[in-house]
Amino acid sequence: MSIFSNRPKVTPVTAPAGSDAEGATERQTAPLGTSPAERTDEQWRQELTPEEYRVLRQAGTERPYTGEYWDTHTAGVYQCRACGTELFTSQEKFDSHCGWPSFWAPLAEGTVKYIHDRTLGMERVEVRCGNCDSHLGHIFEGEGYGTPTDQRYCINSVSLKLVSTDDAGQ
Known about the structure:
Layout: E1 13-14, H1 41-47, H2 50-56, E2 76-80, E3 86-89, E4 93-94, E5 102-103, E6 112-117, E7 124-129, E8 135-141, E9 151-155, E10 160-164, H3 165-168
Parallel strand pairs: 1-6
Antiparallel strand pairs: 2-3, 2-10, 4-5, 5-9, 6-7, 7-8, 8-9
């Protein structure tokens, strides 16, 4: 079964030429104040903490069971920490006990994109923000969690910002 069989409109793409082994790509120089997709590497370095930059822009991974949201059950929406795009909700979050936040689906089609990831000698599918191309984590399927999609979006906490339902109205 293909990892994308439940979502026929979604197709993974290969990272563009010029990508390094970690999945980061060269960016065009753009003036400050431009959209997240147009920011330069230097602008990202100025806006993000070193750990956020390592994960979001260099496709790093935080250590399991150390992130802010791996065991959070707060109701709300999870945004991309780099650009603020709404990516996942607490309604699709589930306890996978893998050490990272796990979701069985993104908020909506197009909020995330998929890239074939062949780094570290593995065949995986990377999940990136559909707006700013930041690395979020990976998607897996067929692991027996009993979720509606039989998929697990394994996402780094440092890639996300939770806006709780209580905070959203303020």
